[in-house]
Type II CAAX prenyl endopeptidase Rce1 family protein (Spirosoma flavum), 100 residues
Amino acid sequence: MSGWLLRPIIGRFIQWTSSVDRYQSLIWVSAIGFALLHFSNYPLEGVRPQTVIAILFPHLVAGLLLSWTSQWNGLRWSIYLHILNNALPALFVLKERSLI
């Protein structure tokens, strides 16, 4: 896209996000996006909608916590928490299989 077309869009987005009232909705949008990005981690062919919601709910909660952490403590701490969230179950599986 050309700069002349993209600049007004980015300007409106910055104005929208700079409002204090919008922080909560941005946290929810990023949490929902986080949950939907993890949607592809599971084979969901023939699965009931209730099961899909049950599978995605923990990712939504994690997305809310990570978004809130990023907002108030910085992106670095949000990344650290995400690494910890992914590493702990992996370490338990590796320990159970006597690989560590």
User: Anything to note?
Assistant: Residues 9 and 54 are 36 Å apart (CA to CA). DSSP finds four helices and no strands in the chain.
